[in-house]
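If you are new to this repository, start here. Below is one unmodified record pulled from the training split, so you can see the exact layout before writing a loader.
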Amino acid sequence: MGQLSIETSRFGTVQTDEDLVITLVKPILGFENLRKFCLLEREESDPFMWLQSLDEPEVAFVVLNPTLFYPDYLVETHPRELEDIDCSDLSKIETYVIVTVAENPKNVTVNLQGPVLINIENRRAKQLVMVNSHYSVAQPLFTTDEKDISTRQVEVSRV
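And here is the target side for that same chain:
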């Protein structure tokens, strides 16, 4: 496929490969009308990324791989939850959490209870709500002593 030009309110016009468009089959809570997204990586905001809406250019969520700050983060899900994104191979899932940005970095939080799961083979995604989870929807981000935030994978397990 070809390149797609995306008009955004934050970054102006950006290009992405059409093959990288993400379709949310179970949308982000409160944004049920937004289904098409892409992940934007910006050098100046690494390790944070932007989940940019293609439906509404002014909507973009700051996201990150949760294991960069929470190395033991575990998504427990029932196999039927993965059917929504046509995934049977757990190694084909990328996991991101939505970041709530605050002026004071001590007040930055992440939603560990509602991760976004992306099937990297077909680009189908969903926000999973882990109902019986000990994780918080507003977990402070900068509370760990973890220094090594190299690339890690989130473990997804079936329950």
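Two things worth knowing about this chain: The two ends are 37 Å apart (CA to CA). The CA atoms of residues 29 and 78 lie 20 Å apart.
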